[in-house]
Amino acid sequence: MSARLLLGEPVAEKVRQRIGDLVTQLATEHVTPKLAVIVATDNQATNWYVSSIARAATKLAVACEVLDLGEATAETLAETIKTLNADEQIHGIILQTPLPQGIDASSLVKLIDPAKDIDGANPVSLGQLSVGQEAFAPATARSVIEILEHYRIPLAGKHVAVIGRSTVVGKPLAQLLLQLDATVTICHSRTVNLAEHTSRAEVCVVAAGQPHLLTANEVAAHSVVIDVGTHVTESGGLTGDVQADSVQPLVSALSPVPGGVGTVTTALLLLHTVQAAVNFLERSRRGECQMSVGR
């Protein structure tokens, strides 16, 4: 048996179609959705990633402004966020990491207006998500759900093991899964006997940041595995948190690296930006003031 590959591109294409429909609707109101990405690093991988977002935005008629602040101070970054919060032409804000050494990202993301927090970085967004209120989930976590739903993998009543407890993937993903009536087990670096938990799961999502952590010894036969990890190999290729060669003959479905979750993430960031623009337009019609955190 060979596992079905849960490719990200068909999922991303559907997301892009949703973006196109919303952009067309906004155009009738003379509104152009706009994303602002704050960069304060010369990290090549980060710059490549931000450039890929900008290229994807251009193709979808979403404006994207990259603010390269160099080795900015925390004060400069804070003032930039406040300015973007107040700018009604900006609908989405991303504070790209890593930041210059010594700067605490957690204190800065608190300043992002939750209405513009399209990657779910503000603790307010995460809190709203945890109680089922409307909020933008971190795009990577949401990508996992989009893939599972696209391939019609049932979640209600199913046991899902999530390996990783970051605020970017593990924790928000657990909340999204609970909202879909899954039974969720969160595993992490201190979990004793990982296989005891993962081998009983019908769906296993691996977002631990450790190459090849999950092997055939830790999965159940016929289960579904979603690999969120991305690591550069010595040969310059990419590999994930799952040892794909050993797992694939055993499981029923597996998301590949590359070509899986990461493919969907950029599209979702842009969808969230467009949805934020729609939300702003609706608030404007109701005469509500745009909330800006940290003004």
TrEMBL record:
Domain Tetrahydrofolate dehydrogenase/cyclohydrolase NAD(P)-binding: 138-278
Cross-referenced InterPro entries: Aminoacid_DH-like_N_sf, NAD(P)-bd_dom_sf, THF_DH/CycHdrlase, THF_DH/CycHdrlase_cat_dom, THF_DH/CycHdrlase_NAD-bd_dom
Catalytically driven reaction(s): (6R)-5,10-methylene-5,6,7,8-tetrahydrofolate + NADP(+) = (6R)-5,10-methenyltetrahydrofolate + NADPH; (6R)-5,10-methenyltetrahydrofolate + H2O = (6R)-10-formyltetrahydrofolate + H(+)
Domain Tetrahydrofolate dehydrogenase/cyclohydrolase catalytic: 7-119
Signal peptide positions (record): none
EC number: 1.5.1.5, 3.5.4.9
Residue sites binding NADP(+) per the record: G164, R165, S166, T230
Keywords: Amino-acid biosynthesis, Histidine biosynthesis, Hydrolase, Methionine biosynthesis, Multifunctional enzyme, NADP, One-carbon metabolism, Oxidoreductase, Purine biosynthesis
Associated pathway: One-carbon metabolism; tetrahydrofolate interconversion
Family named by the database record: Belongs to the tetrahydrofolate dehydrogenase/cyclohydrolase family.
Oligomeric and partner information: Homodimer.
Biological role stated in the UniProt entry: Catalyzes the oxidation of 5,10-methylenetetrahydrofolate to 5,10-methenyltetrahydrofolate and then the hydrolysis of 5,10-methenyltetrahydrofolate to 10-formyltetrahydrofolate.
Protein name per UniProt: Bifunctional protein FolD
Natural source organism: Glutamicibacter ardleyensis
